[in-house]
Design a protein that fits this description.
This protein is mostly beta strands and 383 residues long. It contains three helices and 28 strands. Strands 3-22-19-24-17-14-13 form a seven-stranded antiparallel β-sheet. A six-stranded antiparallel β-sheet has the order 5-10-7-8-27-28, with no helix packed on it. The protein has a five-stranded antiparallel β-sheet with strand order 4-11-6-9-12, with no helix packed on it. The longest helix has 14 residues. It is globular and about 55 Å long.
Length: 383
């Protein structure tokens, strides 16, 4: 039997995403001991052969396991857009600046005219932003910019610190459905202070693997990070924890036909595995029938056979080797010690991580622009 992953000290202030990007003052974060698998896994291994360690209802944000530290899921049925690329509906009755109530099936979040998240900082980790529907306008303190969506992925290594804005322009006049995952992947101490790095993984370049079962039904895996069989994902940013194959980082979005069977192979490595079943009817794993909106923690040493129900199913799969280092977090600032955390916050308060080169905190790009990325050195890619 493999030894369980060591207990790590996780010091965090438990804040939702809306509070993460508002809180920039200095506080002392509380200490919480977290076990990645531990005794519970050993007991399960002794008593049954199920690959399931734990099943929990999806919360907001979605709970994660190391090396992932946060996962937000946004789905909004935005109406048509106006000339300013905001919603062509009245905003009356909304808590503008803190609109997370889901009124009429959509949110403004922190936006006042256009939905989204105006300028806010990150330090000490990475954001992996997967946009399956709609568009995101990116602007940052490095002078980089972009518009991406419709299956694109943005990989941003915050490193020593960066500010960015993520606004959701509504370009269509009739309706603008929007779906986004933002996954926070921790950085090891050696990479906590690297220069920020921004990279696009364009939808047309991301591998999509079609796996047929014995009845011809298909499962589609979009390989954001990692590997499946002989297929390897596009490379992440160079300082990413995912850049080292020995860390076995996997980020997949999965679409399953009705009644399809699909197997996630076992791996004899010390990794955590999370499967998020967020849309569909029900799936069966072993003897467990699991309805949608559940988070399933899996034993990596056991093959996972998933049988989907009659409706198309949508899942997110995260896997990775935990970073065996202490972590202390306050909102969007992640460090290894309290002293490092204090220094990072003080640096942000003093320098704003280089300042903000845009005219407003919530910039959106011209409505005539398509998908593009502009790097700090002026290199532009137009799709």
């Amino acid at each position: 039997m493999k030894e369980p992953i060591k207990r790590l000290t996780y010091m965090t202030s438990k804040l939702s995403r809306r509070k993460f990007i508002n809180k920039t003052g200095l506080v002392t974060a509380g200490s919480v001991i977290m076990s990645q698998t531990g005794i519970a896994k050993k007991l399960l291994e002794m008593t049954n052969n199920s690959p399931i360690l734990r099943i929990k209802p999806l919360s907001s944000p979605w709970e994660t396991q190391y090396p992932f530290i946060f996962c937000a899921y946004h789905y909004d049925e935005y109406p048509g857009g106006n000339d300013e690329l905001g919603p062509n509906r009245s905003l009356k009755g909304r808590n503008i600046g803190q609109d997370f109530a889901g009124k009429d099936g959509w949110n403004m979040y922190h936006g006042s005219k256009v939905p989204g998240f105006p300028a806010h900082p990150h330090s000490g980790f990475e954001t992996v932003t997967v946009v399956t529907k709609g568009l995101v306008d990116h602007s940052d303190s490095l002078g980089a910019a972009g518009r991406f969506g419709k299956g694109d992925v943005q990989w941003l290594t915050a490193g020593k610190g960066v500010q960015h804005a993520e606004m959701f322009p509504l370009l269509n006049k009739d309706s603008n459905p929007f779906e986004l995952f933002q996954i926070w992947l921790n950085l090891p101490v050696k990479s906590k202070k690297v220069e920020p790095h921004y990279k696009m993984l364009w939808s047309e370049d991301i591998p999509v693997i079609k796996v047929k079962d014995t009845k011809g039904n298909e499962t589609h895996i979009k390989l954001v990070a990692g590997y499946y069989g002989n297929q390897v994902s596009l490379p992440p940013t160079p300082d990413s924890w995912a850049a080292d194959p020995q860390n076995h980082v996997q980020i997949w979005t999965i679409k399953m036909d009705g009644n399809v069977e699909f197997i996630i192979p076992a791996i004899k490595e010390e990794v955590t595995r999370s499967l998020y079943f967020y849309q569909g009817d029900a799936i069966t794993i072993g003897e467990k029938n699991i309805t949608q909106k559940h988070h399933i923690e899996l034993d990596s040493e056991k093959e996972v056979k998933i049988i989907n129900g009659s409706k198309e199913g949508s899942l997110l799969f995260l896997q990775g080797r935990p970073i065996d280092e202490p972590i202390i977090q306050y909102g969007p600032f992640v460090a290894n010690t309290k002293a490092d955390l204090q220094e990072t916050i003080q640096t942000y308060q003093r320098t704003q991580f280089g300042g903000w080169p845009w005219a407003t905190s919530d910039p959106v790009h011209d409505k005539s622009k398509g998908r593009f990325s502009l790097q700090p050195d002026g290199t532009e890619v137009i799709k």
